[in-house]
Amino acid sequence: MLGIYLLSKIVEDFLRRGVNSLRRETEYKAAILYQALENHSILSSFVKEKNSQSKTVIVADCGEHTARVASHLEKSGIQPGDGYGQLKGSQLRFANFPAHSREQYELLVDSIANLE
Asked: N or C end of the chain, less CB within 10 A?
């Protein structure tokens, strides 16, 4: 029952915010993260073709720096997901859903920018 109640509150919030607002926010958060990856010296986007880049799951190539990047982000309270399969040790994944605020994504981008 608690799960159903909480889901109803999330749906109410999504309806209040509106689908266009949720889409614009998702696109904004994806754009700032892709830009941060593009501008970083040791990180890059796994998907290079802009038209093929996901707006909801963003994968960063970290190479041999993956553990260090993850540790740095975790100190800021950010918990990236691991890569998959053979790329698990060289990539991090970032979810970009309506539950993730603009502020959280701006903190993520700032943390990436501060990574040396």
From this structure: N
SS3 96: coil
Rounded-to-integer distance, Cα 87 and Cα 62, Å: 10
Distances (CA, A) of 62 to 69, 98, 99: 7, 25, 25
Which residue ranges form the domains of the chain, and what is each CATH number? 19-113 (3.90.1150.10)
Q: Between vectors from CA 14 to CA 24 and to CA 112, what angle results, nearest 5°?
A: 50
Residue type, 49: E
**Residue in 28, 18, 53 with CA at minimum distance from that of residue 106:** 28
Residue type for position 60:
A
- Cα gap 17→102, rounded to integer Å: 14
Q: Which residues, in sequence order, are CB contacts of 57 under 8 Å at separation 6+?
A: 93, 94, 95, 96
